Amino acid sequence: MKSQRPIGYLIIGQGLAGSILAWLLEQHGQDVAIVDKGHENSASRIAAGIVNPVAGQRLAKHPQTEICLTKARAFYAGLGNFFKQTFYFERPMIRLFASEKERTIWTERKSDPAYFPFLGESFSENRGWPAPANRTGGFHQKGCGYLDTWRFLDAIRRHFKARSRLFEQEFSWKEISPNRAHIVWNGCRIEHIISCEGFRAGGNPYFSRLPFQFSKGEILTLESADNLPEAIINHGKWLLPLNSRVFKCGATYEWHSLDARPSDPARELLCTTARELLIRDADFRVLAQHAGIRPGSLDKNPFAGIHPAFPRLGIFNGFGSRGVLTIPYYAEQFVRHLVYGTALPREIELGRCLKNDAAG
Ligand SMILES: Cc1cc2nc3c(=O)[nH]c(=O)nc-3n(C[C@H](O)[C@H](O)[C@H](O)COP(=O)(O)OP(=O)(O)OC[C@H]3O[C@@H](n4cnc5c(N)ncnc54)[C@H](O)[C@@H]3O)c2cc1C
């Protein structure tokens, strides 16, 4: 696509972060274009898209969980109405206790009013879900669901493409000079460039010094011989039914090898997980295996802001394994900051981790 119109915000990357940021900027009257190469194994494309407000062994809730959940539900429903498609599906979750310690934590949390919206009743090992992993019972978890990320990203992509505001190509940071009064790229005058490159930001010359923590994740798509429940089954690893027979099973975490290639050990581990989480002796076959890199941060909070030394460059990244839940809320905060100059929430500001004026 060639465009001579000036661009207010050029968004690099059309994963969940870039898509949602671009959409909201446009809603706030900004002239936006996206550059995206369309890497098939982007984290957003292969993610299961699960929203789980109290994830992890400690069943701990992030301070912003409620607001993030409210915003995420409203945002995905709103876009569903606009595009006349359903992107987000509310689902119950059956969580199996991994240990007696986890049951103790559940008991403590269950009496805390802050957890009332998320923790349902417990069940013993003879009830709930009759899978081999149900050794000590579990509980019903509320407020969960999943985003069909593929469908969502395709809808946003078509929207920007139809308006000739999508460049389907690799963006090279070597092609720009951010010191000038305005940036010229591909024959266009650009006011701001925002990096939403996922793990590829690790090679970005302006932001690579941010304390990222990348992790490789793998996921299987499987077909079961028996009917599946509607609920997501979670035992640390999880099983997400997409219809009565097809489900996803994930996910692995690997911090050393970051090659985004599917591996045999992960396939074996996830097949074992599926055997543990499906009802006893259930049969299934593998339909697909995917690997991607989660763009996380060391302090588990995302990065949003303008580069301290290059005011035309910004970043929106670092969403780790919780992008579906957190991106709509933080994108809205970032858009308000960019367009109206409101302050960013402290937990996402770049200043929390940049001690001098150079991020790259
Ligand atoms: C196995 C796995 C399972 C997951 N499951 C879940 C889950 O259940 N729930 C959840 O909330 N999160 C999950 N995640 C995490 C989720 O995927 C991320 O939080 C989120 O997708 C990050 O989105 P992003 O837009 O920041 O990055 P990405 O999805 O990586 O998007 C970056 C985009 O930028 C493009 N790009 C980068 N650099 C350039 C360039 N120079 N030029 C052109 N294009 C470029 C890429 O092609 C890509 O499209 C999972 C991740 C993995 C790997």
- Shape by Cα distribution: globular
- Overall pLDDT, averaged? 93
Order of helices and strands: EHEHEHEEHEEEHEEEEEEEHEEEH
In which order are the strands of the major sheet placed?
A: 6-7-5-13-14-15-12-16
CATH superfamily of one domain, please? FAD/NAD(P)-binding domain
Spans of at least 5 consecutive residues whose pLDDT stays below 50 are none
Give the CATH class of one domain: Alpha Beta
Task: Assign a percent range to the helix content.
Answer: 25-40%
* Share of β-strand residues: 25-35%
Number of strands: 18
> Architecture of one domain, CATH level 2?
3-Layer(bba) Sandwich
Number of helices, counting only DSSP H or I runs of 4 residues or more: 7
Q: First CA to last CA: what distance?
A: 29 Å
Summarize the structure in words.
There is one protein chain. By secondary structure, the protein is an alpha/beta fold. Among the domains are: 7-47 and 150-211 and 299-352, FAD/NAD(P)-binding domain; 213-297, D-Amino Acid Oxidase, Chain A, domain 2 (2-Layer Sandwich). Helix content is 26%, strand content 26%. It has an 8-stranded mixed beta sheet with strand order 6-7-5-13-14-15-12-16, sandwiched between helices. Strands 1, 2, 9, 10, 11, 17 and 18 form a 7-stranded mixed beta sheet that branches. Strands 3-8-4 form a 3-stranded antiparallel beta sheet, covered by helices on one side. Helix 1 (16-27) crosses helix 5. The protein is globular. Flavin-adenine dinucleotide binds next to helix 1, helix 2, strand 12, strand 16 and helix 7.
What does this entry show, briefly?
The protein is of the alpha/beta class and 360 residues long. It contains 7 helices and 18 strands.
